[in-house]
Specification:
The structure holds 2 protein chains of 2 kinds.
Chain A: E1 13-17, H1 21-31, E2 36-40, H2 63-76, E3 80-83, E4 86-94, E5 97-104, H3 118-122, E6 126-128, E7 137-139, E8 141-142, E9 154-155, H4 163-171, E10 184-190, E11 192-195, E12 199-201, E13 218-220, H5 221-228, E14 249-256, H6 271-285, E15 290-295, H7 304-312, E16 317-321, E17 326-329, E18 336-342, E19 347-353, E20 355-360, E21 362-364, E22 389-390, H8 400-419
Parallel strand pairs in A: 1-2, 1-11, 2-3, 11-22, 13-20, 14-15, 14-20, 15-16
Antiparallel strand pairs in A: 4-5, 5-10, 6-7, 8-9, 12-21, 17-18, 18-19
Helix pairs in contact in A: 1-2, 1-8, 5-6, 6-7
Chain B: H1 11-19, H2 33-37, H3 49-56, H4 60-64, H5 68-71, H6 77-81, H7 88-103, H8 107-113, H9 119-139, H10 155-160, H11 167-170, H12 174-207, H13 214-227, H14 240-267, H15 279-309, H16 314-339, H17 342-361, H18 370-383
Helix pairs in contact in B: 1-7, 3-7, 7-8, 9-17, 12-18, 13-18, 14-15, 15-16, 16-17
The chains are: A alpha/beta, B mainly alpha.
Amino acid sequence: MADEKTVTPESGTILVVGGGISGITTALEAAEVGYEVFIVEKNPYLGGRVAQLNKYFPKLCPPTCGLEINFQRIKKNNLVKWFTMTEVEKISGGPGNYDVALKQSPRYVNNNCTCCGKCAEACDVEVSNTFNFGMDKRKSAYLPHEMAFPQRYVLDPSIIGTATAQKCKDACPYKAIDLDDKPKTFNIKVASIVWATGWNPYDATKMTNLSFGKVQNLITNMMMERLAAVNGPTNGKIVRPSDGKVVNNIAFVQCAGSRDENHLPFCSYICCLASLKQTTYIREANPESKATIYYIDLRTPGRYEKFYNKVKADGNVSFLKGKVAKIEEDPATKDVIVTVEDTLSGKKIQARHEMVVLATGMEPSTAQVKVPGNAKYDDNSFVISEEILATGCVKKPSDVMSSGQTATGTALKAIQMVRR
Amino acid sequence: MAEGKLITPDLNFVKKIVNSGGESLKKCYQCATCSVVCNVTPDDKPFPRKEMIHAQWGLKDKLFANPDIWLCHQCSDCTAFCPRGAKPGEVLGAIRKLSIENYSFPSFLGKMVGDSKFLIFLLALPVVLFGVVAPYVAQLIPQQYLEGSTRPGNLFQAMSSSEPIVYAERLMPVPIIDTIFGLAALFAVFGFFTGIMRYWKDLSAVNGKPKGSILNAITATIAEFLAHKKFKKCDVTVDRSKSHLFVFYGFVGLAITTTWAIFYLYGLQRPSPYPLYDPMKILGNASAIGLLLGISWVISNRLKNAPKAGIGSYYDWLFISVVLTIVVTGILSELLRLLGVAILAYPVYFIHLVAIFFLFAYAPFSKMAHMVYRTTALVFAKSTGRDKEIA
């Protein structure tokens, strides 16, 4: 066995860009065998998309559980250094010898913060809550979410220079608010880089025929996760955005923009399971409820077939083979009307539901923001380069479990690059 | 378990669809987006999703004997929204072409019209007819029946003549034209008649005999055509409702003009050319301009919509080219005649005759036949209740 006190065997540090489940995993796996690792995260918290989920596969745990373990590992390991609100500006050099320019945006809150919440109480400006996909508002002095790591408030830059910011500062009993905080740029030298910036939900407004954004009770699968989450905008009650009514009759539209040449041509792997999982949210919350899944074909890779069979055994969940290609709103009831051909019976039908969930796919974050260095992409903007390594959903759509597995493999690749 | 059904796919038919403009056929994965975005399909057994699988499986009979392929007006909303680029609109267009080929008589001509490698032979027939046979026959006409100094039928003599341009005197005597076109028209009518009889028989055998009044169905179909009601339901290619309407009424106007001219010639014994202020002439010229605008608009729409709707097949473009040639050479023939440019006028008129022959004689096999088959299919569909009145 190697001596536990061994420090970095060869000079060389690993940079992991993106502090979601994949990035954290790669960083920890490398750090726990003795390599120095930097995690750079653009959000004010670590945890990425997983932090936004209500429950995740394979065991349907709440994310607080899995993330908490990882945050503990980070805290205990001196070799992991992390920067939130930080983005990579430029990468120069090559494997073994990278020079990376970073830019950290001001948080305006220093580590005196105890999360007492006094600043938020004093704050009188509310903005749309992006963590909950705009389904509610948050104060401009805020904790991103209950379990945010680090547990530290943030000030929205829009209030800086206003009286509101001053009120927040005055309310803080710990001198934690620093309104003079400025963006910082600094460089680090690393031997290998792992890009783990994950994914964004595909913009559902692009499917013009599905009328997302025009039909009030039409949400996306990620919004459904927030609706079902106890720390979400409705404290976990699955209710309609239009009138707050409990949803009894819900539908899921699979492949909303996925496997579609006009949008995302690939399959995002997990949306079928996500919808199956979400039927259990509503069925458990309300025994009277009914759910319908409209699909082209249900994809339940590997052991997930078992979960599908479990959901299928529930008589109140029905499956209809046919892609929903038209969605309208009943102006009187705000019910959602979907048009679909039931391809097994050959009937084009219009079905009414109280709320409809679009199973939108994963767009790699690099579709919008490219790696500021020498990276290669496939046709769909997934990172495939061999020099700047990639892991997680920026490389390939995956579930949390396989993200963890591949991120561990990527740690080995990163180490190999350090030692080469 | 439901009972199994043994399907015998006609692979050759699948290949034919692929070669007739339906090359994207096999990309379809049966999601049924197409049936949902289609605004002209009935809700029960909607198209074109089921046609796509029938086509992939090579179930020729199911496709031909199904009036649905003609209820489709190729709006291309399906093609625009298709997640796989399977272009159902173009596939159904290819199936319609093969349906025309299947029912028209004699069927070898159907194959020739649909295949670019036979174009040269199809063109050769009218060129030889007007360029060799007609002048030879004209030689046999005794001199006392001829009005001008040169013998008609000789293109080169006519081009170098300084006499006023009169096509009927110098190039193509009326009896010759009327004989050739009369026979071509008879041939076309016969081809259509045979085709329609076969088609109706198949339709009735598969879908059952019509229940409602055929006469009412015909009236409803014609009313629908006159207003181009179905085209107006298209989203992606909605401008076709106007361009096609122009072409349609251009043809209607020219058909009336032709009948009117026959009446002048044989009823009133008035020989051509007629003065420009003659009402028949006014209608003819107006229709020609309408047709020119319409067909140019059709072309520009097709080019504009190509990224979403597909560019169309050889079969489509052959028909468009023939119509364009007819209308351009027709208008030029008149202009060059009035300007007295013999050297250009006669060859242009010659091309005009060749193109008209092409349109007439090959009508039962070309895209022109869509007029007849679509009408038949719609009459059948309306009389069986398949095609409901659309608002």
